[in-house]
Amino acid sequence: MSEAKGHISIPNTSTAQADSQALPPQDCLSCRIIGTGALGATGLYALNQSRAHAPGSPLGKRILAGVGVCCLVASALRWTKK
Question: What DSSP character marks residue 4?
């Protein structure tokens, strides 16, 4: 009987493939612009809806203000992410 029976061989991968798979994916410039703009616009909209004379409860306005600030921070982080 052969010793290779039941043995599973794993194919070797090149180091270039292993290095490219280990790196996180990079966004193109247009993706960064659209993502940053969308998050920024959402943050500004949420902050606008949290104004004192906008309809809604005070608790809801505070929550919207927090969401707005978080979206603006996420927008800035998305733009500076490399």
Answer: T
Q: What is the 3-state secondary structure (H, E, C) of 20-64?
A: HHHCCCCCCHHHHHHHHHHHHHHHHHHHHHCCCCCCCCHHHHHHH
What pTM did the predictor assign? Answer: 0.66
**Residue 27 CB partners (closer than 8 Å, separation 6+):** 35, 81
pLDDT, tens digit, for every residue of 29-61?
899 999 999 999 999 999 999 998 888 899 999
Q: What does residue 3 show for φ and ψ, rounded to 5 degrees? A: -75, -20
Range of the domain at 58: 27-80
Instruction: Please give the single-letter amino acid code of residue 18.
Output: A
Q: Which amino acid is at 77?
A: L
Instruction: Kindly state whether residue 22 falls inside one of the protein's structural domains.
Output: no
Question: How many domains is the chain partitioned into structurally?
Answer: 1
Tell me how far apart the alpha carbons of residues 82 and 79 are, in angstroms, rounded to a whole number. Answer: 8
